[in-house]
């Protein structure tokens, strides 16, 4: 991380304020690796962050332009920026599972529906960890959390036949992928494709929250046990799944080309301006 951190992150933001052993740094590193391998410069990217651990720990870390939004609003701000900025400028957002799949879901779905050119990295720590560890929309079924002392009973977005990526695909998302923080270059490749995609792209990356999720669900803050738990459930060989929690990873969906929202509006604006100019020229003649 050192080389990437020095090259792309603000010195005063290093080291991160995340808890010791937190997997969020692995997620952030994969995005930086993807940027590096794509050969993008600091000025090529505007970086937005949401709320919660993923937003707080990555907020204002990028050496270039940054912005932040409350739950869900980061997509709305990104849409406005997409319309205002040159089309070649990349917009990357780091948000959490609560922001993307819970409180901010409606904004996210509308960004997918409009096919706004942005890349959303959902850093998923299995619940609302920055507020002490309440269950959320990706908390494994039955997990003990601060708000589910007898095990979570609320159906989540990732088990029992439900998949939030299906919902996003139905809404029109162009590029969707899922990974875990313990994966390597395959996750970086997906992020690279997402950033290069002209339209709405999202990469969902699960990572271990040592302090709250593992501390409460497993009664231990041992990072080794946490990383073993997530590794064993990342694409396990058939028959080796112990509790039904499986992270099937890789690229989930790439759409046929759809018109990108800002490009469509830009085209319309140019046509209207030309029409107006023709009318003015006609009046002068
Ligand atoms: S509370 Fe959990 S997710 Fe948040 S920084 Fe600490 S270990 Fe990471």
Plain-language structure description:
The chain has 285 residues and is an alpha/beta fold. It has a single domain, classed as Rossmann fold. Helix content is 42%, strand content 14%. It contains eleven helices and seven strands. It has a seven-stranded mixed sheet, with helices on both faces. Helix 8 links the parallel strand 5 and strand 6. Helix 6 crosses helix 7. It is globular, with a radius of gyration of 20 Å. The model has no long low-confidence stretch (mean pLDDT 94). The structure holds iron/sulfur cluster (SF4).
What name is given to the CATH topology? Rossmann fold
In terms of DSSP E residues, the strand content is 5-15%
The molecules bound to the chains, other than polymers, are: iron/sulfur cluster
Number of domains: 1
H-E string: HHEHEHEHHEHEHEHHEH
Give the oligomeric state. single chain
Task: Give the tally of β-strands.
Answer: 7
Helix content: 40-55%
Average pLDDT, rounded to a whole number, is 94
Structural class of the secondary structure composition?
alpha/beta
Give a quick rundown of the structure:
The chain has helices at residues 2-8, 24-38, 53-58, 73-84, 97-103, 105-114, 164-171, 185-196, 210-217, 223-232, 261-284, and strands spanning 45-49, 65-68, 90-96, 118-124, 175-180, 200-206, 250-254.
